[in-house]
């Protein structure tokens, strides 16, 4: 048998291993993502935005993004998020109100480094990428990147950790 046929055999044997997006130490990375737990606040002209994250169980973080209406203080649910640990794969699910028939869109964690946690779904148009970056114990940066026509579009938001006094609740509409 030739070296070439051994090489092809090895390629077909190892190819499935390269096609999965398993992350080394996914359980450790998932625990690091627990730093999102809490209430995050970002002031804006059209009403302040909040991201609220909590553990649902030992393998699921769930979150909501809300806008507090400037005119009356009511809150509007903009999106829900879930980060799930499934074996050695971490999936971020995003459900944006009024989009995709209000069904969640999965994004897989593809990179975790000093630049943050990058979740990608190449089949999506906008966004294709979502990155969470912990700037400090009190700040996170949420960036998205996608396509709008032939252009690449990106957004960047910086949230500050909000310490909500006990007993304060938000009304969600």
Outline the fold blueprint:
Layout: H1 3-19, H2 26-33, E1 38-42, E2 49-57, E3 60-68, E4 75-86, E5 89-96, E6 105-113, E7 116-120, E8 129-134, E9 139-148, E10 151-162
Antiparallel strand pairs: 1-2, 1-10, 2-3, 3-4, 4-5, 5-6, 6-7, 7-8, 8-9, 9-10
Number of strands: 10
Number of helices: 2
Helix fraction bin? 10-25%
Approximate shape: globular
**Ends apart, CA distance between termini:** 69 Å
Q: Taking all residues together, what is the mean pLDDT?
A: 83
- Beta-strand level of the residues, as a percent range? over 45%
Low-confidence stretches: 4-20, 167-173
The major β-sheet equals: 10 strands, antiparallel, barrel
Could you spell the SSE succession in H and E letters?
HHEEEEEEEEEE
Major beta sheet, strand line-up: 1-2-3-4-5-6-7-8-9-10
* Helix-strand makeup class: mainly beta
Rg over CA atoms: 19 Å
Task: Label this structure with key terms.
single chain, 173 residues, mainly beta, 10-stranded antiparallel beta barrel, 2 helices, 10 strands, 49% strand, globular
Verbal overview:
With 173 residues, the chain is mainly beta. It is 14% helix and 49% strand. It has two helices and ten strands; from the N terminus they run H-H-E-E-E-E-E-E-E-E-E-E. It has helices at 3-19, 26-33; strands at residues 38-42, 49-57, 60-68, 75-86, 89-96, 105-113, 116-120, 129-134, 139-148, 151-162. Strands 1-2-3-4-5-6-7-8-9-10 form a ten-stranded antiparallel beta barrel. Strand 9 (139-148) and strand 10 form a beta hairpin. The longest helix is centred in the first third of the chain and has 17 residues, at 3-19. The protein is globular, with a radius of gyration of 19 Å. 18% of the residues are buried. Residues 4-20 and 167-173 have low confidence and may be disordered.
